[in-house]
Amino acid sequence: MEIKDNELLRQFELETDKGLLSVEYSLQERKIFLTKLKGFEEGVQAQSIDFLKGVLDIVREKRLRVVPTHPKIVSFFRKNPIYKEMLPPGIRI
User: Fold this and answer.
1) 3-state SS string for the chain
2) Distance (Å, rounded) from C-alpha 63 to C-alpha 36?
3) What is this structure's pTM?
4) Smallest Cα–Cα separation from 66: which of 29, 32, 90?
């Protein structure tokens, strides 16, 4: 899986056979706000979970804190508590 960080559009992208999956983001200080999802329909459920895990691995490598603002990303954090360590202090999900 090759996830592209499109810095111009401020989104992570993954090309799939069903189309483009993307997560839009905004950077502020040492935090990344995950704000919008595109292409996450029912048919790509397994791919979208792997995509989000890949995005969070990239973010972890950059040593950024994650502020999920999109409901599906918040739900992902609830279901995958191993990523909760990436949240900034004071943010609870």
Assistant:
1) CCCEEECCCCEEEEEECCEEEEEEEEEECCEEEEEEEECCCHHHHHHHHHHHHHHHHHHHHCCCEEEECCHHHHHHHHHCHHHHHHCCCCCCC
2) 21
3) 0.87
4) 32
- In the numeric block, which tokens belong to residue 82? 């191993």
Query: Residue 89 burial (CB < 10 Å; 0-12/13-18/19+)?
Result: exposed
**pLDDT tens across 21-37, in order?**
999 999 999 999 999 99
Interval 37-47: pLDDT, tens: 988 776 557 78
Q: Whose CA is closest to 12, among 54, 60, 69, 65?
A: 54
